[in-house]
Amino acid sequence: MTGPVEAVLFDLDDTICTYERSADDILAIAFERVGVEPFFDAEEYIERLGEFSEAGSGDDIRDTRRAAFGTFAAEAGHGEAVGEEIADIYTDERDQANVRFLDGAERALDALADAYRVGMVTNGDPWMQSQKLAGLGIEDRFEVIVHGGHDAPYKPDPEPFHLALEELGVDADRTVHVGNSHASDVTGAHAAGLRSVWLAEGEPPFDHDPEPHHVVESLHDLAEEPWG
């Protein structure tokens, strides 16, 4: 039986914050400096990153990125060293703390932290994600932070959600998870038995399965506690 909500878990990237410079912007700089035509984009990079990181291994994102870009280069007919050089430029150019709140995110965090236990389940390297939280000044807002791909497999695997619930001491059916990715956040939350809130900013009308329990267009809506 579903009871009242006691805890709220958040995704980080493109839910609470976004980079001031996009991944494609930085890739364009890297390709130009190396002097080759682009042979992959940010979408492919993000979709395939899991191929190069063993879940729970604690791999450094910088090493994982070098392995990924080296493989992409080899597949495109360049030497792996070309991809590794692009990865190194990308790392130098990417300031992980140069992020900003998405509209309504800070208000939602302030409102919900007063009423609920608050945690985070994010896919990403702790080295990288901690800089984003510090850049936003919210590193102390969360009682627990679980990093998919490091502390547990990547979302949508249910394990990172289960780890967060165990740390908080809250049941799954008393917890909602908020995220922008239907594939990772909604699917993962449902697999773990949580209620889902999908941030569908700019998305077309809903036609995905599983259907999220709640859909919000911005995090301003989240402050109104749609599950209530």
Give the total of domains.
2
Report the order of strands and helices.
EEHHHHEHEHEHEHEEH
Main beta sheet: strand number and arrangement?
Answer: 6 strands, parallel
Give the uncertain stretches in residue-range form: none
**Overall pLDDT:** 91
| Named CATH topology of the largest domain | Rossmann fold
Structure write-up:
This protein is an alpha/beta fold and 228 residues long. The chain has two domains: 7-19 and 98-222, HAD superfamily/HAD-like (Rossmann fold), CATH 3.40.50.1000; 23-93. Helix content is 40%, strand content 15%. The protein has helices at 23-34, 42-48, 61-75, 80-93, 105-113, 126-136, 159-168, 182-191, 219-222; strands spanning 7-10, 17-19, 99-101, 117-123, 144-148, 175-179, 195-199, 214-216. Strand 4 (117-123), helix 6 (126-136) and strand 5 form a beta-alpha-beta unit. Helix 1 (23-34) packs across helix 4 (80-93) and helix 3 packs across helix 4. The radius of gyration is 18 Å and the shape is elongated. The mean pLDDT is 91.
Describe this protein with a few key phrases.
228 residues; alpha/beta; Rossmann fold; 2 domains; six-stranded parallel sheet; 40% helix; elongated; HAD-SF_hydro_IA; metal-binding; magnesium; metal ion binding
Task: Write a compact overview of the structure shown.
The chain has 228 residues and is α/β, with parallel strands linked by helices.
Task: Please outline the helices and strands.
Blueprint: E1 7-10, E2 17-19, H1 23-34, H2 42-48, H3 61-75, H4 80-93, E3 99-101, H5 105-113, E4 117-123, H6 126-136, E5 144-148, H7 159-168, E6 175-179, H8 182-191, E7 195-199, E8 214-216, H9 219-222
Parallel strand pairs: 1-4, 1-6, 4-5, 6-7, 7-8
Antiparallel strand pairs: 2-3
